[in-house]
Each structure stands twice: as structure tokens, then as C-alpha cells.
Amino acid sequence: GAGVSQSPSNKVTEKGKDVELRCDPISGHTALYWYRQSLGQGLEFLIYFQGNSAPDKSGLPSDRFSAERTGGSVSTLTIQRTQQEDSAVYLCASSSGRNSGNTIYFGEGSWLTVV
Amino acid sequence: AQSVTQLDSQVPVFEEAPVELRCNYSSSVSVYLFWYVQYPNQGLQLLLKYLSGSTLVESINGFEAEFNKSQTSFHLRKPSVHISDTAEYFCAVSESGFNKFYFGSGTKLNVKP
Questions:
Q1: Beta bridge partners of A4
Q2: In terms of Cα–Cα distance, which of B50, B51, B67, B68 is closest to B59?
Q3: Average pLDDT score over residue span A43-58
Q4: Which pLDDT does position A108 carry in this prediction?
């Protein structure tokens, strides 16, 4: 696609429910990232994919968080048993390769509110 | 691991005044440096980046940033700001060979008429 696409753009869920957030990266981009942006905070790294593998998942805050990527393209971030502190904007980004000098392109984010 | 510090969470400035947004990072290993901008109700987009070569890099809309290795800084400057520059600016660092980007907490630039 022309840009990184994320869905849903907004999600309100009840505490304890599971949510899935989807990211469709730019076509041909092999690297995919998930970040979290909480109110007044910077971008918190969650996980990085190169192709379908995740060489760095060190940023996932707890075992309630998981992510997968299939076909080297679409990725899904799943949060189980959501808590209020999970409320944030979840940003997906992609880049064209393994070089850390490559520009990463962000989607517009999925706003998650846990009530 | 790197840490990125943006000391100023908010910077108010009048239109046509100069501005500097500060960014410091923690490690002196080989790094790549980036500034991203987030305009109201939009996603983050790259403003400029330093990979190698000249330590002064420029964007198409008049911003510039200078890589200072000894001070581990990458401050963003513009000699004369416009209302349209109102946005949040994020500094980011990646280490050469590691495909992981560390972001600062952001600086909100508010340009007033």
C-alpha cells in the first residue's frame, strides 16, 4: 500500500477483554515495528520483526502482550486481559531493510482506551 | 541500550523567532540520528536524519540539526518559525548494525502569532 495502515483507528474496550490491533506495512518493507505512546510519554519500543521472525521482543511489557507477523506482511498485536494502564496509542512502523539507517514510516496509530 | 533525552517538553515561541529543540543521547557508539515530527491529528513523519558525512543536515522546510559527537547531541534549529511548524517533535537514535530505534519523550513546539 501507499503507507502504513493500522486498524482499528480507535478502540474502547472493557477491562479484562482481549484486543487485537492490526498493521499493514508498506508493500515490500521487511522490517516492522510496534511502539506504544502513552499520554505525555515518548515512544516505547515493543517489538521488531524482520520478515516473519521477531529478533527483538524485549519491549513487550508483560506476557499479556504478543505479536505475530504472517507472510512477511501484516502484523497483529494482541493484548489479553486488558488493563487500564494499557490505554495508549499503539503505533506501527515499517522500513525497507535491515540497515538501521533506513527511514521508518509510521502509521497513524490505534488509540486504545480501556474502561 | 540507548536513552534519548529531550529536556524541553514544551517550547512556546512567537512567529518568525528562532527556535532550538534540544536532544541528547546516551551512548557514543556509532549511531544514526533522526528527528520526526507529528503535526496535529497526523502520524509521525521523518523531518531529517544524520547517517554519516557532514554533521549538519537540513530539511526541506528550513529546519537543520547538527550532530555533535563529543556532546552526544543532535539539536534541531530553525532561524524563523511559522505557525505551520506547530507540532510535536521527536528525536530518535539507532545504533549502527542494530535495527532498533530509541525515541525521546517529544517536544511540543507551539508557534504563536
A1: none
A2: B50
A3: 86
A4: 92
